[in-house]
Amino acid sequence: MTDTPARAGMGELSKNHLHELKKLKQKKYRLESNQTLAEGFNLIEQLAANGIFPEEIIAGDIAKALSIPNLRCKILLARPHELETLADTETPQPMLGIYAIPSTGFEDYRMALYLDGIRDPGNLGTIFRSAAAFGLDGVVLSQDCCEVFSPKVIRASLGSVFWVPSLTAGPEWLQRQDALKAGLSSNGSSSLRDFRIDKSKQLIIVMGSESRGISPEIRALLDAEVRIPISDRMESLNAATATGIALYEMAGRFCVDEKGRAGSLVRTRKRQLQGKASEH
Fold first, then answer.
1. Helix axes 265-278, 41-49, angle to 10 degrees
2. Cα separation of 148 and 279, whole Å?
3. pLDDT per residue over 166-216, tens digit each?
């Protein structure tokens, strides 16, 4: 993540630069360059409001880009067909931001989420959105989860992947944690609402994929499995929906502050980023 640089000026998108930016649609090049794309005025504006600024903006409307407060990056004018080339949505937005991929790992936490094999970008982004909404301290992803900073995940998360701390780790990380590890499962021995939480310990909520659930290797490390009671007419819930329900329920009972909010690291991170925004 970069601080807001001095305004580098405006210009037109060149063919050579367009060719280089197109590479960011591929995971390989995002990882090599440590950059990613965020699409749409509203998303770029929201990221800026949270102290997260692009390295440059590609826009069909320069005046629209200039309306984003505290923006200090270069703005390049692009034609509609050039924006379509860079976009990954069916209806391309007339603005894209190029962002540095931040290092967002964490060590301290009261309540965290471990995701085992979440491979759908929409689900992963929505889960990050819920994690941000309910104040989780961090998200840990197994190696077979999809990429956190892909444009689709960023869009589904409303940008929250930039301020919710995350890291990638296997079962050995979970095994090392001296925390209460509760997995969500349709075959859980107790319902989510009846599950007793030991507030003297850290809490890790574990969520598996929709297709196979929590893997046997991860299940062996759990202290408990809990279920969300649903109608007999439905077999299961969407992974992101189930995670959101669990975070709402557990955050409300586990680690709340004087204002009834869970978590601490996410709010601290957002305050730091917003402080940077106010300085510019």
1. 100
2. 28
3. 999 999 999 999 999 999 988 877 888 888 888 889 999 999 988 889 999
